[in-house]
Amino acid sequence: MKIGIIGTGNIGGALARLWMAHGHEVVLGVRDEQKVEAVRGAFPGASVVLTEDATEGVEVVTLALPWPAVEPVLARMGPLAGKVLIDTNNPLKADLSGLKELGGRSAAEVIQQLHPEARVVKAFNTVGAAYLGHARVGDADAGGFYCGDDDGAKAVVAELVGQTGLVPVDCGPLRNARYLEAMAMLWINMAFGHRRGERFAFALLSDAASRANN
Amino acid sequence: MKIGIIGTGNIGGALARLWMAHGHEVVLGVRDEQKVEAVRGAFPGASVVLTEDATEGVEVVTLALPWPAVEPVLARMGPLAGKVLIDTNNPLKADLSGLKELGGRSAAEVIQQLHPEARVVKAFNTVGAAYLGHARVGDADAGGFYCGDDDGAKAVVAELVGQTGLVPVDCGPLRNARYLEAMAMLWINMAFGHRRGERFAFALLSDAASRANN
């Protein structure tokens, strides 16, 4: 699969390496020409282009940017019609004291409303980057919670989640992204506000006879 | 310890039995005299009294009621000064489509504001009653997430959480109850809205060298 990733920080960078290791073709979008060479050096095997060109020919676009960057970046990206758009954001207040008020909506729903032609799936927002590719935590594997309204897009994302080692957990419609963003905010508050550190992760345990995932 | 429990449904009833099994003295508060005998029969060993008398001499009061019942019940309860008040509620909309809008606050914070003399701790709201006393789920134990502003009260609740088999997870200040209520709403939506069933639970996995809990 050809996957565009906008943002090469902790989450975007880890996803790029893991997905390349699974044989995907990764296109990294960067802000300006000056960054291209450095990013190319850091991600051998990936294509590095300007953000506005990073959606060309890709089936999946992953947004791994801080929330304030999302709207301006989306505004200058190429066509998203029919593409799977993975939103990894948490719309944090600048002081990390909580989530921004988005009229009761999640960041994912805001993005879907801005781009109704894209197939938005929320994923990778509730887990520390350290667990991507290293999902075993104590006695179980960290959960890869995701949600969305397009079943086909969700199936694609479930596979990509699994390739990071996380256990894919279908959390229902995109509307439920508001709850996933709340879980992430709890994680952030526990990790940084209360100095627990980053070595913990949410999981969904299931002992249902069937449908352990999905 | 002497513990009052208001509400003898799935959660209140399970907590009553588990805490009695751990040697605590349990006082169950019921709405009217007509219910006393039936509840006494169902909970051998527990005292059963009217709700207004259920806080007398107890150190911990547990609210295990549907959200619409909480305010009227609190209004007619005895003094709560200095007592640990465990809030297990989720302020669900009547059609289960989401959480009630409480001015950005959690149910737990609303209760704390109504009764500043009590030491409110949020707990037992994110887990299905079936896992109380049976916390092993697949390869790990379900989490007993709790939060509050009074460290002494939280220590008491952490012990009571552990006695239900759940792994006590300190989730910070009472303000974070808004995130725990969001997690519960996600659970409810996945369980009932999307017919996953009730056989799953959230856990917090940790591989920190120390402070695995708390």
Offer a concise description of the structure.
The structure is a homodimer of 214-residue chains. With 214 residues, chain A is of the alpha/beta class.
Question: Your description of this structure?
Answer:
- The structure is a homodimer of 214-residue chains.
- In chain A, β4, α3 (67-76) and β5 (84-87) form a beta-alpha-beta unit.
- In chain A, the strands form 2 sheets. In chain A, strands 3-2-1-4-5-6-9-10 form an 8-stranded mixed beta sheet, with helices on both faces. The first copy, chain A, has a two-stranded antiparallel sheet with strand order 7-8.
- The relative contact order of chain A is 0.14.
- The first copy, chain A, has helices at residues 10-21, 33-42, 67-76, 107-114, 151-162, 177-193, and strands at residues 2-6, 25-30, 47-50, 60-63, 84-87, 119-123, 136-137, 140-141, 143-148, 167-170, 200-206.
- Chain A has a single domain (2-193), classed as NAD(P)-binding Rossmann-like Domain (Rossmann fold, 3-Layer(aba) Sandwich), CATH 3.40.50.720.
- Chain A is globular, with a radius of gyration of 16 Å.
- With 214 residues, chain A is of the alpha/beta class.
Mean pLDDT of chain A: 94
- Overall strand count of chain A: 11
The CATH architecture category of chain A equals 3-Layer(aba) Sandwich
* Overall number of domains of chain A: 1
Strand percentage of chain A:
15-25%
CATH level 1 name of chain A: Alpha Beta
Strand order of the largest sheet of chain A: 3-2-1-4-5-6-9-10
The largest β sheet of chain A comes out as: 8 strands, mixed
Judged by helices, strands and strand pairing, the structural class of chain A is alpha/beta
- Largest interface pair: A-B, 37 and 36 residues
* N/C terminus separation of chain A: 22 Å
Radius of gyration of chain A, taken over Cα atoms and rounded to an integer in Å:
16 Å
Approximate helicity band of chain A: 25-40%
| Number of helical stretches of at least 4 residues of chain A | 6
Assign an overall shape of chain A: globular
Model regions low in confidence, pLDDT < 50 over at least 5 residues of chain A: 210-214
CATH topology-level name of chain A: Rossmann fold
Kindly report the name of the CATH homologous superfamily of chain A. Answer: NAD(P)-binding Rossmann-like Domain
